[in-house]
């Protein structure tokens, strides 16, 4: 079957829109100076650096290792428990995301509140987040914070296990902000176990 003029126009339009969508999704989180707001520093599956994992995480109920880089004004190290994270105000929302066909419900404290629990009275600027599978990112916190990301403790009302992206999963209410598809995927780090505060303001 031959493709007529209208068919060719439709195909060309689809190609252009697909390319435009990809461009928007890849450039959505660029800052005015062109630098990325989120930068992948280690790919999933690359386990280099895992030897730095605190042995305190092996204790029951201990979930999140926090570090303050020299000069950040934050403590050098603290490990937060599930009880500490659960004691913070909990945010609950339902949103679509890349890894599920259906919208799912997440609940947990704001990333901002977790940072303030660890290092009170500071304005956070640059963070480093690392997952158990080796995936790691650097991020510009003030820009990312506008999307109100949480450290999710539960998914659809149930605690998450490591095998299903737990125990901790950074998630944001994507539907509320109508962000382009996949544009925040790099932020949504699952199996989170470590946050380092590199720079404060």
- How is the main sheet built? 6 strands, mixed
Q: What spatial order of strands do you see in the largest sheet?
A: 1-7-6-12-2-3
| Element pattern in H and E | HEEEHEEHEEHEEEEHE
What is the CATH domain class of the largest domain? Alpha Beta
Say which CATH homologous superfamily of the largest domain is assigned: Oxidoreductase, molybdopterin-binding domain
For the termini, the CA-CA separation is 63 Å
Proportion of helical residues: 10-25%
The overall average pLDDT, rounded, is: 87
Overall geometry: globular
Write down the domain tally: 2
CATH topology of the largest domain: Sulfite Oxidase, Chain A, domain 2
| Percent strand | 25-35%
Rounded to the nearest angstrom, the radius of gyration is: 19 Å
DSSP helix count? 5
Q: Which residue ranges are poorly predicted, with pLDDT under 50 across at least 5 consecutive positions?
A: 16-27
The CATH architecture term of the largest domain is Alpha-Beta Complex
Q: Got a strand count? A: 12
- Structural class, by secondary structure, is alpha+beta
